[in-house]
């Protein structure tokens, strides 16, 4: 049986398909599986790191990075420089995201005294105005998909337009329910596809604003080859089910 | 050549209340923790920290040493969030200047180059602009006319970094995979102090290592401290990895009562008693397994 986590991993993999030779920076288990799957199938030129400073020549299983030969050096400072040149693509998390793709990972509640202090804006402001940026939300809910985010870390389409951010390229949000893009009116969020077994109304109910909905397709299933790669090569320990339970 | 060897406490004696201090490393990686612990033991207060933050920030916040934090994130890496940083923020007790991590880099570069600012795209359109109302944009004077963020120089009074090896004169060497931004922190600072795992004679620095491991030259270092396991519990590859069990214990001890016990057991004594208490912690852990 194909699991929801596997459908999500393939949907994430599809976001790297046309990336070419860029540094892939996936955050989270399923995006990491997706980037590795893309490298083994449609996007062989992707650069992957070991999570520290090494670029991996191989495509090892999650947690087995040290088994791979190294093809290059990418310390944190160099990542910060490289992203300004655009040869990078990220899939970041989002504690909150709004209809234009404004993302928050910094804090929930008032700025001076947050109800919940999160990690900080991190690289989100710079990533989102410098190169292609996608998001991964493992638990689609009205807590995450909000009318207005408490603090804009990653820049959405409305704000990017206002400041003329010429390299802004926020494309999709992959969740445990669906794939969403920003081809709705005025660059607003549109429901592109629902995962098998999910109804359009399920997604709308767990989204805190009105989604653009026109021709919703069903998210594609993994091919036999992709399933084999996910289960045997990339994630033999089945870490994916911890992020998206079966 | 000048002999710059100091003790950690002598470094801290060079610091004063209200200073802006840059701390090297990244997250929970190669932090100058022995120097941080020496600050914890001192009466220093009202510090402004500039850090790619990890438990350095958490510990100094827990001890009430920090007035303001300039940062892009605070994380323990294998544990996403530092509980002490969260707690002081959620009590509204810590002023922050929060930037994109590339903006922090631009600010340090500006300071190191004695420039008032450097232009960057990072921050445009985000709430980083509103979080930092003094931030200004600048318009390209060339034909493109692009509007960019003018990231102001982040000038540091002092930089504190931890490397693997150094000589007595302040030439210092990293042997792990990543220099982090330690050299830039030192270049952006008026004075810099480097702690290290081991002080070696200058002629031994390159016995087994290539020249590009020599990250800091002595123009940038005002003091050298030998403090083995001085980055503990953060990683200091290849000398040692992050002490994950101890970091979990640190993160689980953030409640008021637990913190009192943690502090008494690990932090109230000097560096030697800290290292002995850590060894004892692991011995007891091994017994219970």
UniProtKB/TrEMBL annotation, chain A:
<dbReference type="Pfam" id="PF01144">
    <property type="entry name" value="CoA_trans"/>
</dbReference>
<dbReference type="InterPro" id="IPR004165">
    <property type="entry name" value="CoA_trans_fam_I"/>
</dbReference>
<comment type="similarity">
    <text>Belongs to the 3-oxoacid CoA-transferase subunit B family.</text>
</comment>
<protein>
    <submittedName>
        <fullName>Acyl CoA:acetate/3-ketoacid CoA transferase beta subunit</fullName>
    </submittedName>
</protein>
<dbReference type="InterPro" id="IPR037171">
    <property type="entry name" value="NagB/RpiA_transferase-like"/>
</dbReference>
<keyword id="KW-0808">Transferase</keyword>
<dbReference type="GO" id="GO:0008410">
    <property type="term" value="F:CoA-transferase activity"/>
</dbReference>
From TrEMBL, chain B:
<dbReference type="InterPro" id="IPR037171">
    <property type="entry name" value="NagB/RpiA_transferase-like"/>
</dbReference>
<protein>
    <submittedName>
        <fullName>Glutaconate CoA-transferase subunit A</fullName>
        <ecNumber>2.8.3.12</ecNumber>
    </submittedName>
</protein>
<dbReference type="Pfam" id="PF01144">
    <property type="entry name" value="CoA_trans"/>
</dbReference>
<dbReference type="InterPro" id="IPR004165">
    <property type="entry name" value="CoA_trans_fam_I"/>
</dbReference>
<dbReference type="GO" id="GO:0018730">
    <property type="term" value="F:glutaconate CoA-transferase activity"/>
</dbReference>
<keyword id="KW-0808">Transferase</keyword>
């Amino acid at each position: 049986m194909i699991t929801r986590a596997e459908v999500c991993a393939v949907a994430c993999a599809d976001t790297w398909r046309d990336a070419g030779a860029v540094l892939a920076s996936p955050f989270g288990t399923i995006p990491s599986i997706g980037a590795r799957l893309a490298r083994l199938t449609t996007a062989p030129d992707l650069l992957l790191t070991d999570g520290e400073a090494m670029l991996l020549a191989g495509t090892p299983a999650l947690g087995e990075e040290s088994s791979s030969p190294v093809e290059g050096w990418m310390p944190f400072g160099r990542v910060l420089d490289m992203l300004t040149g655009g040869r990078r693509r990220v899939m970041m998390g989002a504690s909150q995201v709004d209809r234009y793709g404004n993302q928050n990972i910094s804090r929930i509640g008032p700025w001076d005294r947050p109800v919940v202090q999160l990690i900080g804006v991190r690289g989100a402001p710079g990533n989102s105005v410098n190169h292609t940026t996608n998001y991964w939300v493992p638990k689609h809910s009205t807590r995450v998909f909000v009318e207005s985010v408490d603090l804009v870390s990653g820049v959405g389409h409305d704000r990017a337009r206002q400041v003329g951010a010429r390299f802004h390229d926020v494309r999709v949000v992959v969740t445990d329910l669906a794939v969403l893009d920003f081809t709705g009116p005025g660059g607003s969020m549109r429901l592109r596809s629902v995962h098998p077994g999910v109804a359009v109304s399920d997604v709308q109910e767990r989204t805190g604003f009105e989604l653009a909905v026109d021709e919703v397709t069903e998210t594609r299933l993994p091919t036999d080859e992709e399933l084999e790669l996910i289960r045997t090569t990339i994630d033999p320990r089945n870490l994916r089910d911890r992020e998206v339970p079966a | 050549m000048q002999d710059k060897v100091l003790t950690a406490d002598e470094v801290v004696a060079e610091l004063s209340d209200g200073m802006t201090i840059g701390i090297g490393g990244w997250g929970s990686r190669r932090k100058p923790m022995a120097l941080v612990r020496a600050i914890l033991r001192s009466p220093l207060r009202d510090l402004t920290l500039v850090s790619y933050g990890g438990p350095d920030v958490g510990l100094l916040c827990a001890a009430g040493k920090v007035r303001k934090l300039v940062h892009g994130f605070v994380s323990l890496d294998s544990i996403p969030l530092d509980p002490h940083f969260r707690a002081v923020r959620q009590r509204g007790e810590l002023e922050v200047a929060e930037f994109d991590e590339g903006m922090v880099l631009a600010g340090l570069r500006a300071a190191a180059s004695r420039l008032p600012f450097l232009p960057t795209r990072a921050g445009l359109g985000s709430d980083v602009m509103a979080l930092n109302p003094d931030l200004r944009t600048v318009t390209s004077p060339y034909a493109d006319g692009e509007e960019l963020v003018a990231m102001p120089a982040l000038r540091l009074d002092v930089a504190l970094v931890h490397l693997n090896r150094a000589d007595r004169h302040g030439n210092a060497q990293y042997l792990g995979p990543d220099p982090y931004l330690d050299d830039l922190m030192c270049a952006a600072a008026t004075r810099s102090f480097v702690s290290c795992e081991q002080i070696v004679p200058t002629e031994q620095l390159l016995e087994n290592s290539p020249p590009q491991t020599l990250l800091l030259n002595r123009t940038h270092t005002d003091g050298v401290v030998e403090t083995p396991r001085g980055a503990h519990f953060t990683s200091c590859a290849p000398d040692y990895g992050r002490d994950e069990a101890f970091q979990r214990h640190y993160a689980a001890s953030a409640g008021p009562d637990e913190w009192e016990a943690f502090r008494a057991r690990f932090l109230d004594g000097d560096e030697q008693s800290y290292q002995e208490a850590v060894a004892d912690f692991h011995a007891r852990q091994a017994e219970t397994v």
